[in-house]
Amino acid sequence: MTLDTDDELLALLASALLAAEPVPQSVRVAARAAFTWRSIDEELAALVADSWERPSVGVRTVDQDERELTFRAPAAEVELLVTGGDSARVVGQVTAPGPGMAKIEHADGSAEVVPIDVLGRFALPLLSPGPVRVVLDLPGASLATSWFLV
Description:
- The chain has about 150 residues and is of the alpha+beta class.
- About 15% of the residues lie in helices and about 40% in strands.
- The chain has helices at about 5-20, 25-35, and strands spanning about 45-50, 65-70, 75-85, 90-95, 100-105, 110-115, 120-125, 130-140, 140-145, 150.
- A hairpin with a 2-residue loop joins strand 8 (about 130-140) and strand 9.
């Protein structure tokens, strides 16, 4: 197939784009959330342990309604227990104890904020399933986990 003019090339490209399936809205929302610049100053805590990735041993199976996650950054380590079902929530512990604020952010921009107690503990209700991250405002530091699915 030879294309003699730019118009023929543009028509061919347009037909190819129209034939492709549209990007799902949930993917668009997650992509926008991943590239926001409003959190550029936060230190990113990387996922270092996930109970869903552990191999099953013996006859016991992995509980899909509970998930243990550990995130690590130079300033602190964050351990999360994510429980599912009707009373879905996130319970966390920060290794750098002290008062602060914890926020769970969803890809659609919704968020819930709760205090962190003097021992570094907090509990966050989940707003809806999907990609989330936890943002911690600690004395002298702001820390965010990488995005994970609930």
